Amino acid sequence: MPEIFPSSLEEVREAVRTHPRLRPKGGGSKPALSSPQEGETLLNLSGLRGILEYAPEEFVFTAYAGTPLKELEETLRAHGQYLPFHPPLVEQGATLGGTVAAGLSGPMRERFGGLRDFILGVRFVDGEGRVVRGGGKVVKNAAGFPFHRLMVGSLGAFGVMVELSFKVFPYPRATRTLRVGLAHTAEALAVLQDLRTLPLDLLALDLVPPATLEIRLGGFPESLEKRVQRLQSLLQREGEVLREDEAHWEGVRNLAFLEGSPIWVKVPSRLDLIPHLESLPLGPRRYLAGGDLLYAGLEPHGLKALRDGGIPHLVLRGAQEVLFPSPPEAFFAPIKRALDPKGRFPLG
Questions:
Q1: Pairing of strands 3-4, 41-44
Q2: Which of residues 238, 253, 268 is at a domain's end?
Q3: For the segment 214-259, what is each residue's pLDDT rounded down to a tens digit?
Q4: Is-cis flag, bond preceding 68, omega within 30?
Q5: Which of 15, 116, 161, 333 is the most buried (most CB within 10 A)?
Q6: Which ranges constitute the DSSP H helices of 236-309?
Q7: How far is 255 from 211, CA to CA, in rounded Å?
Q8: Who contacts 50 (Cβ-Cβ below 8 Å, separation ≥6)?
């Protein structure tokens, strides 16, 4: 398949005007989304990288869409800051634009919210080669149509993202993780439900099937031990306390538990849906954000079970048809016609 490497906004515009079908690619960490189909030209955005503006005192930055998250996070960490939605696949080369297009958040989204809660603005090229802006570069700027939020999870269907602006937060001074094993899935779900209703300010609240909870706390070192003890008292279990937990959670956010599985999927979940999901032939898996988000590794028959059951999912690796179900026609189609009338960009 042909591949082009733009290094400027104007070169992106020229590529859009020249090629009838384009598929943007960032770092290739989600190959199911960035592998070109028949007749598509691969638009490799690795040349559009780097931070354009960063104001640590304002907790905002603007960067090119092809910027690797690893480079970006190194800069943020030097100022004691981070992206609170904890984007996955950083070590695999994920980029800022690819993360937005796939709508991916990681385990620490539990505390402050997902990607959509932190994106401030976008600059992109639509299917006619026009430059479109949405949102802004500062927290209080909410002018215009919120194209920046529309881009989250769009899979590049509306245009090629060139620049993105985000707000960031201070990184926790210290963290602790409490790992608690329960008797069975039903008990674990009941405890999850209770924890979600309490004002505990948890950084992460994950279920590792069948019945293990991993609960991460963050804050000032002098307060963490008492908070862990309070949590143990509420659970009436001591569990296992991980005091040096950074490497563990880096493995989780990079989906290391899926390594070896041929197909990787993201599945929207809910506590009441988990028993049904657990009845399916899924492989290694983990429920994040209090049970609202599942990442799972599958064999082909497991993917078929999801589709036969009508369960929405997004394939990140290992299959051609990546999005199920299709976007709602009444919402999606008018925007697609306005921004990409010639159908240059893929629908998944």
A1: parallel
A2: 253
A3: 999 999 999 999 999 999 999 999 999 999 999 999 999 999 999 9
A4: no
A5: 161
A6: 246-253, 274-278, 300-308
A7: 19
A8: 63, 64, 67
- The total of structural domains in the chain comes to 3
| CA distance between the termini of the chain | 17
The answer to whether 85 touches 177, Cβ cutoff 8 Å, is no
Encoded tokens for 214: 């991993």
Q: Is the pLDDT of residue 141 over 80?
A: no
Inside any domain, residue 301? yes
Domain stops at, among 253, 270, 298 = 253
Domain that holds residue 319: 256-324
- pLDDT > 90? residue 142: no
Has residue 12 been placed in a domain? Answer: no
Q: Is the pLDDT of residue 90 over 80?
A: yes
Give the span between the Cα atoms of 62 and 88, in whole angstroms. Answer: 20
Sign of the CA dihedral 106, 110, 116, 120?
negative
Question: Who's near 151: CB < 8 A, 6+ residues apart?
Answer: 100, 101, 119, 122, 124, 134, 158, 159, 161
Q: What is the pLDDT of residue 328?
A: 82
- pLDDT tens-digit series, residues 301-346: 999 999 999 999 999 999 988 999 888 888 889 999 999 999 999 8
Residues 70 and 105 in one domain: yes
Type of residue numbered 280? L
User: Does 145 share its domain with 164?
Assistant: yes
Residues 166 and 203 in one domain: no
Specify the range with the lowest mean pLDDT, choosing from 104-113, 162-171, 321-330, 336-345: 321-330
- Tell the residue number behind the tokens 């009436």, with chain if given: 236
Residue 157 CA to residue 179 CA, distance in Å, equals 40
Find the CATH number of the domain harbouring 223.
Answer: 3.30.70
The domain that holds 84 is classified in CATH as: 3.30.465.10
Q: How many CA atoms lie within 13 A of 343 on its CB side?
A: 4
Tokens encoding 77: 């960490």
Could you tell me the pTM of the whole model? 0.95
Does 159 share its domain with 52? yes
